Amino acid sequence: MALKPWYTVVTPREDLRKNKPLDASEFAVHLDHVREGRAPSVYQDPAEFFERTYLTKNLRDLSAQVVRRLSGIRVETSAVFNLSTQFGGGKTHSLTLIYHLAKHGSAAKGWKGVSEILSDAQVNEVPAAETAVFVGTEFDSVRGRGGDDGTPLRRTPWGEIAFQLDKARGFERVKAHDESLTAPGGDVIEKMLPAGRPTLILMDELMNYVSRSRKSGLGAQIYNFLHNLSEVARGRNDVVLAVSIPAAELEMTAEDQSDFERLQKLLDRLGKAVIMSAEAESSEIIRRRLFDWQGVPAEARDTIEEYAAWIQGNKESLPSWFPVNNAQEALRASYPLHPSLLSVFERKWRGLPRFQQTRGMLRLLALWVAHAYREGYNNVHKDPLISLGTAPLEDPLFRAALFHQLGEERLEPAVTTDIAGKDHAHALRLDAEARMEIKKARLHRKIATCILMESNGGQSRAEATLPEIRLAVAEPGLNIGSVDQCLETLTDHCYFLNAERNRYRFTIQPNLNKLLADRRASISSAQTHELILAEIQKLFGRGNKLEPPVYFPKKSSDIADRAALTLVVLAPEQTAAEPATVTLIEALNREYGMSPRVFRSALIWAVAEDANPMLDEGRKRLAWTEIAEDTTDLHLNESQRHQIEDHLERAERDLKEAIWRAYKNIFLLGPDNTMRKIDLGLTQSGAAPSLVDLILSRLRQEDLVAESVGPMVLTRYWPPALPEWSTRAIRDAFFSSPKFPRLLKPDALKDTFVRGLEGGLWAYVGKAGPERFEPFIYKRTLAADDIEFSADLYLISPERAESYLASLSAASLPMLAPEPTPAPTTPGGTIESPAATPAEISTLRWSGEISSQKWMNFYTKVLSRWVTSAALKLVVNVEITSPTGIPAGKAEETKVALRELGLSETVDVIRKP
Fold first, then answer.
1. Which parts form a coiled-coil structure per UniProt (predicted)?
2. Where in the chain is the domain with CATH 3.40.50.300?
């Protein structure tokens, strides 16, 4: 069920709806402005003021006591009150409330909440009283007040209070004391107060005046005046003195602190200390000040119940301080604000030196609500609650107010770089790139904002824990695991976010990510490209069962044309999606230098999908490598050094995985003689022992590559028009025609030939003349090593073999029966053997020159009989001389043939003079 957005359930104040939140100074009530009738209407109009004021228990208690005392009742009340505060509905606000009550008397009876005050005070109406207001931040004793407007000049607090109570007549009673800057004694104060009429005297921001007046002596005199006034008030039944003395401790000097403590002790001794707000009531105060509040609407019930159920279902993942079993009550007490939004101020911010518990926070929340209301309607953000993560950090005015409360303006770069305030802020970018669920929830942004708010409070170790973050940003319908994923992503990208053991904090100091970004910027493209090429070769060379791959060819002659399965790895920038890449592959697969390529089916092309991820990871690895080498110069701590080691290991893994993911495309010649592309899909290092293994595995699945072929496969592919098929032509067919399966090793065909011989599927022969075969091997066992791939050796069909046998007598067949040993001498050489009987001969040696035409006959007639019956050792000396010169291509072919036989490729070359 979709939960209703908060702004469709409750309505912010009109000025917030119009995006005109009051300035912070307007959240501060100026008693003098109220007295003079020039305060904003929300403070000046008593009915509106009471409508927006939540009467906390302590505020009701203060108001009731003041009304009782002004009514002449001394029981259960006090004449002197010392006001302090914890969170909201502050000192001056409380003074303003009792001022309106005393000033308007019985007219106050119809205002919201006054009936409860009268009930608590046990009186029927509020007595009208003479009132006097002294505000330390407003009154200046050097200039004084009056003297040029028809009123007497007042230079002291007592002169000003006397004038307010009884105009010129009241001032005359303390005029001499005002002029001499001396506090009046009790008897003078007694005469200064109106006789027989209730009197309320309010003194606010007293420390400000004391600090400014210390040099003139008035700082000390105000203490005496306050002492004397308190004693007089205590002796009267209908006089109340309410004083607020605090100044921000951050701004106090040692002398200020001393005077503050003296005044505090005095008032505590003679009067009653009153704490104006309790934590449990702070949300109600805020809701009255920021919304057209009539209590929690019925439409909010579903939101409260859904959130409470979600909290219960995930209680093991949430902070222990949150009242999980009373989640509904906590949500109802804070709606439309998320409970963690208000609790962060009470749990953490109250310890901040600059934290203004009423004025600044109301200003901050007013900006917040106004922005959330506007964003909700304009951008269709359907947040069920105003949560900690929705703080409008993109608004410079809000950021300024926030940093003022935190006392740390230097957080500006951290916020605008990592969270919001700039279009490319990391959290905003990560949300834009995330999957729809996270993008819609603005989860990266909310998490980062929550960490900022939780990790910059006044506690000794400012940090946001994982359970606190989950509580603040997760909501019904959102997978709580997404929070952990987004945290990991933020940790990898943000420049000012520090993470350690599931504890997070934003600081003014750049982290290793920033160091990495700066170092990455100094890595050249050439460095990166060189590393990528080396890593590609390392990965493709690992566990390779083929011939050594050909890496990054630029021309067709870079790729040998030979009958062997060859993997060709294109450079990373030559991607599969580029038409030019396919054109290049087709050209290189078709040509070999200036000639057509013969073995076109032997080439398998590995092509990257996209080079950018590899380049990014390569640049990152180079950067971490440089940082790891410079840890001493960078003045890093031990923890950061360990992190760098971890980052370097991870960068190496990430680069490896980027190469695996990139080289997912295989090209090879298809049956229709056009290039066929095979997409390996999502590739990763765990899929196979090596990249080559992965490629071969896929090609095996599609029967495009085989370890070996059976004899019947060869008979199936036998060209009908060929009565005989040379062994070299057979081998070459498997690597030139895409109709044949590609063999991992060409020598696998020798086993195929042997099995076919044993089964009588063909005969293995050499031509000794038009109608004569030497050798002729048929239906016999032959070792695979004895088979050669040659243009002069053939396979013939069994029908032709049988026909040949029938045309010859058994004696004429050289391989059907052994022949007597030939004469010990031949025209080409001599046989050396000891003079002994045949049974005693241990070694035979022969050397001589044989014409190339008789080489196969020499093997058949002389050597074949010794292959299995004795230890035959051949030492061959070959010399090839041509009067016209030997082409370089022929020499290269000779080396290739030697390599195919597993022999040394070393060939002595004599150049023509």
1. 634-661
2. 30-280
